[in-house]
Amino acid sequence: MRLNYGKTFTLGLGFFTISVVWQIYNAYMPVFYSKFVASTAMVGFLMTIDNILALTLQPVVGSLSDRTWTRFGRRLPYLLVSMPLAALFFILIPFTTGALVPLLLTSVLVNIFMASFRSPTIALMPDVTPSPLRSQANGIINLMGGVGYIIGAFGLSRLYKVAHFWPYAVASAFLIIVPLILVRTIKEPREAEGKANEGFSLIEATREVLQGREKSALFLLLAIFFWFVGYGGVEALFTKYGISVLGIDEADGALTLGFISATFLLFALPAGFIAARIGRKRSILTGIVVLTVLFAALASARSLMIVRVLFLLAGLFWAMININSYPMVADMAGVDNTGAYTSLYYVFSSLAAIAGPPLFGYLMDRFGYGTMFYWSSLFFVLAFLAMTQVRRGEARTAAVAAQAVSAD
Question: Which end of the chain is more exposed for a tag (fewer CB within 10 A), N or C?
Fold first, then answer.
């Protein structure tokens, strides 16, 4: 059984487009909001709209997609409707920056329609990819997401200097073109058709995770929460840490943090192949152990060069964790409830994204900025303990996988 690279890269166009849009959105929306809102805290709150929807609308849509079947499939109808609507409102953002109410309304509508296709987009991968190949496929999809981020950050930022309209126009074009490409090239498996009306709801999936005799899914979701708190706290506050502890400026702090992203992107695909050889759980545990040690070492590092070298290594092992966790979640779900389990994955990661930065901010205010990496290491230890209780989620055998999903 071999991975269909052409189909997988095509699947990755969805995540690529999501990354392009969010890079532009996160880069410029705080600037637009700051014209009307003096409070930085309020600007920060407005920038969490996507995380709020990830906890509310996104899980509902993911679960609904499990119980949908049309001639286009289960997931693709949501992309065909929501991506063009997101494009319509995204392209309007630069024209609504003259007043707060139109800007806020447009932003909320963009977030609603982006949340309406994210879970179905991600759930497409396990739907059309055999179980033994999902880690490799997830590596490619994350690689595509990284490319989208780079294009948004370095390519479209130049267009912003030409006219504020252009980055939004290009991203909106992706939002219109990509679903058309996907619907012409991706055929969802017919096996799902007969199960569409009997698919799990999100409530049923949550009940199964919490009340089932076997707790692997619950412990995996807890591990996901812990390591995203540990990583997200560092990601959000490293620039302030760099200024206070390392004595560097904001630009050097942002550049240094990018070292993790760079090696994560380079190692996204190899991380999937490593898991195919040694197993997903072992790959994740290895990543957690090494990242815990690296963050503990970073707590005492005061040389910017050493910090950057350790960050380069951290990106490699963060890929070992992040690339292989969603395939484990997907393989704990049945064919008819992948969307619901995908939604639970994003619920726990979004909770971590909301909880991590303020929690780390409190701990750093209470115990000092120099303690940041110790707290991160603690949360990775908690993630390790949770992962030791996970008993399922490895790739199914080729024979079983072939019965569960069509490869082509």
Answer: C
